[in-house]
Specification:
single chain, 202 residues, alpha/beta, Rossmann fold, 7-stranded mixed β-sheet, 33% helix, binds guanosine-5'-triphosphate, binds magnesium ion
Length: 202
């Protein structure tokens, strides 16, 4: 169903003209300095700890990743490249967080990546077994105007626990794409790539 989410995407899409300058590292300034390449579109993976962000990151990117401390912190952020629908992307794996209203240093870094680096696409990785607990952050991400795709990962464990989820219904209620995945087996990755590509081509 192409274009199913076009309207909401257009509503969510905001000015992305504020790119991060290429210069970086500890200048004692408050600017959102990063190691990122300002010329590339960007996809960020966010979500609670242990939801499969890093396995999904590996599925979506090539072999070469760089790990660096987020400027001014001891928090490590992993970045790599991927291509969606032929469009090259920087892909960022963020530290696990429980809320966009951050408390820990890890959460502040994840929040800073979301709000300062202005990713073109945000994947929220969700543990499908604990959907209800994850939705608070989903609402926060939607409210922040971020271009969101909700990824219900660990579907194998949810199914083993007898949980069934109406992905389509959830997607309609939230107004954002929802994809079910098993990152460790690769299940759902094609559909996830397709949803990302739909954002790119809109
Ligand atoms: N059964 C199953 N295990 C998974 C799946 N996705 C990830 N895992 C496992 O869950 C654990 C956590 O995966 P990670 O990718 O490290 O999770 P993360 O979100 O990056 O975790 P943090 O970086 O700590 O926030 C690992 O042992 C993975 O192998 C899945 O879909 N099904
Ligand atoms: Mg991780």
């Amino acid at each position: 169903m192409p274009g199913r989410f076009s309207r909401i995407r257009n509503r969510l899409r905001r000015g992305r003209e504020h790119r991060i300058p290429p210069g970086h590292h500890h200048g004692g300034t408050q600017a959102p300095l990063t190691d990122s390449d300002p010329g590339l579109k960007k996809l960020a993976l966010v979500g609670n700890p242990n939801t499969g962000k890093s396995v999904t990151f590996n599925n979506l990117t090539g072999s070469y990743a760089t790990v660096s401390n987020y400027p001014g912190t001891t928090v490590e952020v992993t970045r790599s490249r991927g291509a969606f629908d032929g469009v090259p992307f920087e892909v960022v794996d963020t530290p696990g967080m429980y809320s966009l209203y951050s408390i820990t240093e890890e959460e502040r870094v994840a929040r800073s990546i979301l709000l300062n680096e202005k990713p073109d696409i945000v994947l929220q990785l969700v543990d499908a077994k604990n959907l209800e607990r994850m939705l608070l952050m989903t609402f926060q991400l939607i409210e922040a105007g971020l271009p969101l795709v909700v990824v219900l990962n660990l579907m194998d464990e949810a199914e083993a626990a007898g949980i069934t989820i109406d992905l389509e219904g959830l997607s309609e209620r939230l107004g954002v794409p929802v994809v079910g995945t098993v990152a460790t087996s690769g299940r759902g990755m094609d559909e996830l790539r397709k949803e990302i590509a739909d954002y790119v081509s809109d």
